């Protein structure tokens, strides 16, 4: 025989569980801020970039991003620059180098602060012993803040995001091979990363 003793709390819990499903599956609950990765100009730091040959749906497949741009900046040290936005933050912050700089092997990441933008925590990756001159620098922006620890960010916001509208996370990623004596802070990758962030913020 079924008891109705717990019927009311069970109904309340089921209703609460249904809220995120309705919000994120049936309603448009994303926040539009008027900014776009594609609107970041190709010309940055006095150099005109060249689009890479990625297929049009690559960003959606690999990073759950429908708004992205990837380009090369030629020169003595060619830089690959990626800017992408996603409403699934983990797809951007969880080892972005595996998708964007595929085939390169990096060690653990660390945080640095560039003199051009000391307010922004920059994630630094260095190549392993097979290519120690390879470096990648990237920044993660959510709303009007830059994220230094994405795991803590996810833990801090995950519950609230179940019941609120979603904002896009933006990833700025630049990679190049350094000269043997070149500091990361003075690299073209760092300069172009900062230029991309500045251009994005001015939109």
Q: How many domains is the backbone divided into? A: 1
> What distance separates the N and C termini?
64 Å
Q: What's the Cα radius of gyration?
A: 20 Å
Order of helices and strands: HEEEHEEHHEEEEHEH
Range of strand content: 25-35%
Please outline what is shown here.
By secondary structure, the chain is an alpha+beta fold. Helix content is 31%, strand content 28%.
How is this fold's topology laid out?
Blueprint: H1 7-26, E1 43-44, E2 47-48, E3 50-51, H2 58-63, E4 67-73, E5 79-86, H3 89-93, H4 97-100, E6 110-114, E7 117-126, E8 134-142, E9 145-146, H5 150-162, E10 169-177, H6 188-201
Antiparallel strand pairs: 1-2, 3-4, 4-5, 5-10, 6-7, 7-8, 8-9, 8-10
Describe the structure in your own words.
The protein is of the alpha+beta class and 203 residues long. It has one domain (30-201). The protein is 31% helix and 28% strand. It has six helices and ten strands. The chain has helices spanning 7-26, 58-63, 89-93, 97-100, 150-162, 188-201; strands at residues 43-44, 47-48, 50-51, 67-73, 79-86, 110-114, 117-126, 134-142, 145-146, 169-177. The strands form two sheets. Strands 3, 4, 5, 6, 7, 8, 9 and 10 form an eight-stranded antiparallel β-sheet that branches. The chain has a two-stranded antiparallel sheet with strand order 1-2. The protein is globular, with a radius of gyration of 20 Å. The N and C termini lie far apart (64 Å).
What are the main properties of this structure?
203 residues
């Amino acid at each position: 025989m079924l008891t109705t003793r717990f019927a009311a709390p069970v109904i309340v819990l089921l209703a609460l569980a249904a809220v995120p499903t309705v919000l994120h599956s049936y309603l448009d609950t994303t926040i539009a801020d008027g900014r776009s990765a594609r609107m970041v100009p190709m010309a940055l730091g006095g150099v005109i970039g060249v689009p890479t040959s990625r297929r049009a749906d690559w960003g959606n497949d690999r990073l759950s991003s429908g708004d992205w741009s990837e380009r090369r900046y030629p020169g003595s040290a060619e830089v690959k620059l990626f800017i992408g936005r996603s409403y699934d933050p983990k797809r951007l912050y969880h080892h972005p180098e595996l998708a964007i700089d595929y085939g390169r092997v990096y060690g653990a990441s660390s945080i640095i602060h560039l003199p051009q933008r000391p307010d922004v925590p920059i994630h630094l990756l260095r190549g392993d012993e097979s290519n120690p001159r390879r470096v990648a620098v990237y920044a993660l922006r959510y709303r009007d803040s830059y994220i230094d620890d994405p795991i803590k960010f996810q833990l801090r916001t995950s519950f609230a995001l179940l019941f609120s509208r979603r904002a896009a996370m933006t990833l700025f990623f630049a990679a190049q091979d350094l000269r043997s004596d070149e500091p990361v802070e003075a690299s073209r990758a760092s300069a172009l990363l900062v230029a991309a962030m500045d251009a994005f913020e001015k939109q």
